[in-house]
Design goal:
The structure is a single chain. The protein is an alpha+beta fold. The chain has helices at residues 4-9, 57-74; strands at 17-20, 24-28, 36-42, 80-83, 99-103. The longest helix is centred in the middle third of the chain and has 18 residues, at 57-74. The termini are far apart. Bound molecules: adenosine monophosphate (AMP). Residues 4, 13, 15, 29-31, 39, 85, 91-94 line the site of adenosine monophosphate. Adenosine monophosphate binds next to loops.
Amino acid sequence: MDCLFCKIIAGEIPSSAVWSDELCYAFRDIAPQAPVHILVVPKVHIESVDGINAENSAVAAHIFETIPKIAAAEGISGGYRVVSNCGENACQSVHHLHFHILGGEKLSDRMA
Ligand code: AMP
Protein backbone atom coordinates (compact mmCIF):
# COMPACT_ATOMS: atom_id res chain seq x y z
CA MET A 1 0.00 0.00 0.00
CA ASP A 2 1.38 3.38 -0.96
CA CYS A 3 0.78 5.14 2.35
CA LEU A 4 3.24 7.71 3.69
CA PHE A 5 2.47 7.04 7.34
CA CYS A 6 2.61 3.23 6.88
CA LYS A 7 6.11 3.78 5.45
CA ILE A 8 7.04 5.99 8.41
CA ILE A 9 5.75 3.35 10.86
CA ALA A 10 7.77 0.69 9.00
CA GLY A 11 10.89 2.87 9.23
CA GLU A 12 11.15 3.15 5.44
CA ILE A 13 10.87 6.95 5.69
CA PRO A 14 12.67 8.70 8.57
CA SER A 15 10.74 10.47 11.29
CA SER A 16 11.38 12.03 14.67
CA ALA A 17 9.76 9.55 17.04
CA VAL A 18 8.34 10.59 20.39
CA TRP A 19 6.36 7.44 21.26
CA SER A 20 6.01 3.89 20.06
CA ASP A 21 4.10 0.93 21.47
CA GLU A 22 2.33 -2.11 20.10
CA LEU A 23 -0.64 -0.13 18.81
CA CYS A 24 0.43 3.40 17.98
CA TYR A 25 3.34 5.57 16.89
CA ALA A 26 3.88 9.29 17.45
CA PHE A 27 6.34 11.56 15.67
CA ARG A 28 7.00 15.25 15.10
CA ASP A 29 5.16 16.93 12.25
CA ILE A 30 7.54 17.91 9.45
CA ALA A 31 5.89 21.34 9.13
CA PRO A 32 5.01 22.31 12.70
CA GLN A 33 2.14 24.74 13.24
CA ALA A 34 2.89 25.21 16.93
CA PRO A 35 6.04 24.92 19.07
CA VAL A 36 4.96 21.34 19.81
CA HIS A 37 3.26 19.58 16.89
CA ILE A 38 3.10 15.82 17.09
CA LEU A 39 1.16 13.30 15.01
CA VAL A 40 -0.20 10.15 16.64
CA VAL A 41 -1.11 7.32 14.29
CA PRO A 42 -2.38 3.76 14.68
CA LYS A 43 0.09 1.13 13.49
CA VAL A 44 -2.73 -0.51 11.55
CA HIS A 45 -3.88 1.34 8.47
CA ILE A 46 -7.18 3.15 9.03
CA GLU A 47 -8.07 5.79 6.44
CA SER A 48 -9.51 8.44 8.75
CA VAL A 49 -11.96 8.97 11.60
CA ASP A 50 -14.58 7.68 9.14
CA GLY A 51 -12.80 4.32 9.22
CA ILE A 52 -13.17 3.80 12.98
CA ASN A 53 -15.62 1.00 13.73
CA ALA A 54 -16.48 -1.64 16.32
CA GLU A 55 -13.63 -3.87 15.12
CA ASN A 56 -10.83 -1.30 15.46
CA SER A 57 -12.09 1.28 17.96
CA ALA A 58 -9.86 -0.17 20.72
CA VAL A 59 -6.91 1.31 18.81
CA ALA A 60 -8.56 4.73 18.81
CA ALA A 61 -9.27 4.40 22.54
CA HIS A 62 -5.65 3.45 23.13
CA ILE A 63 -4.47 6.52 21.20
CA PHE A 64 -6.63 8.72 23.42
CA GLU A 65 -5.15 7.08 26.52
CA THR A 66 -1.69 7.74 25.10
CA ILE A 67 -2.14 11.39 24.09
CA PRO A 68 -2.08 12.73 27.69
CA LYS A 69 1.09 10.73 28.36
CA ILE A 70 2.76 12.27 25.32
CA ALA A 71 1.55 15.73 26.36
CA ALA A 72 2.98 15.24 29.84
CA ALA A 73 6.31 14.05 28.45
CA GLU A 74 6.40 17.12 26.18
CA GLY A 75 5.60 19.45 29.08
CA ILE A 76 2.39 20.78 27.50
CA SER A 77 -0.09 19.40 30.02
CA GLY A 78 -1.21 22.96 30.78
CA GLY A 79 -3.08 23.03 27.50
CA TYR A 80 -3.01 21.57 24.05
CA ARG A 81 -5.28 20.89 21.10
CA VAL A 82 -6.05 17.53 19.49
CA VAL A 83 -7.22 17.67 15.86
CA SER A 84 -8.03 15.06 13.26
CA ASN A 85 -8.84 16.20 9.74
CA CYS A 86 -11.29 13.82 8.09
CA GLY A 87 -11.90 13.96 4.37
CA GLU A 88 -11.65 16.48 1.60
CA ASN A 89 -13.51 19.40 3.15
CA ALA A 90 -11.28 19.17 6.23
CA CYS A 91 -8.20 19.16 3.96
CA GLN A 92 -6.98 15.74 5.11
CA SER A 93 -3.77 15.32 3.13
CA VAL A 94 -2.51 11.95 4.40
CA HIS A 95 -5.11 9.20 4.30
CA HIS A 96 -3.93 7.30 7.35
CA LEU A 97 -5.78 8.20 10.55
CA HIS A 98 -3.78 10.66 12.60
CA PHE A 99 -4.32 12.98 15.51
CA HIS A 100 -2.42 16.25 15.64
CA ILE A 101 -1.28 17.33 19.11
CA LEU A 102 -0.64 21.08 19.09
CA GLY A 103 0.73 23.01 22.03
CA GLY A 104 3.59 24.86 23.62
CA GLU A 105 1.97 28.28 23.31
CA LYS A 106 -1.40 29.98 23.73
CA LEU A 107 -3.36 28.72 20.72
CA SER A 108 -5.92 30.66 18.74
CA ASP A 109 -9.45 30.63 20.15
CA ARG A 110 -10.63 29.89 16.62
CA MET A 111 -10.47 26.36 15.26
CA ALA A 112 -10.01 27.42 11.65
P1 AMP B 1 -3.45 16.38 7.50
O1 AMP B 1 -3.35 17.57 6.59
O2 AMP B 1 -4.39 16.55 8.65
O3 AMP B 1 -3.70 15.12 6.71
O4 AMP B 1 -2.03 16.26 8.19
C1 AMP B 1 -0.93 15.67 7.59
C2 AMP B 1 0.28 16.17 8.31
O5 AMP B 1 1.36 15.34 7.97
C3 AMP B 1 0.66 17.59 7.95
O6 AMP B 1 0.64 18.41 9.13
C4 AMP B 1 2.08 17.43 7.39
O7 AMP B 1 2.94 18.50 7.74
C5 AMP B 1 2.51 16.13 8.00
N1 AMP B 1 3.54 15.41 7.27
C6 AMP B 1 3.58 15.15 5.94
N2 AMP B 1 4.68 14.43 5.63
C7 AMP B 1 5.34 14.23 6.80
C8 AMP B 1 6.55 13.56 7.15
N3 AMP B 1 7.31 12.93 6.23
N4 AMP B 1 6.93 13.55 8.45
C9 AMP B 1 6.19 14.18 9.39
N5 AMP B 1 5.04 14.82 9.12
C10 AMP B 1 4.61 14.85 7.85
